[in-house]
Amino acid sequence: MCFLGDQGVGKSSIIRVFVKGSFSADYKATIGVDFLSKTMYLEDRTVRLQIWDTAGQERFRALAPSYIRDSQVAVVVYDVSSRASFLNVPQWIADARAVQGSDAVLALVGNKSDLGADRQVSLEEAEAKARDLGVMVFLETSAREGHNIKALFHRLASALPHSDGAAPPTDANIIDVRLTPKPPKAAGELSGCSC
User: Domain range for residue 9?
Assistant: First the structure.
């Protein structure tokens, strides 16, 4: 799977919290691309995830198609406290579809949900955008708090086709309409939709 999105939205943090189980507040921009992997145990199979963390800077954007091409899932991340990163989501989705075609398994992730006071993108607006763009998974996460990180990767792993060559499942049978949220710290802390 390939993680895409603007610089500073938290792609590396989401991946590292999932793979290594820890968050670091020290921000270091990804140069080019980084690669991590982790094995997940699902109900019916074991999945080895190969995760490509692409750089969000414009100068590295030309590299993204080669990683998207070799991925089964493209995950576009934006920062809920940055409207500019949200406004760039359609272009990232278009880039993924241009390489993978209309059958691409796409996810939209609003990161930094812990920054409720600084929120510039409402949950409702993001859910509507996810529906309009036809992504299979939409979720808000907080890498800092570890919120929804495991749920995100579980959903992504479940969307992968089985090794027997079966077609990937449709969005109708892999995504809950809405998860039951824990008591929210900020409005719209948790969401899942069949987008």
Answer: 2-173
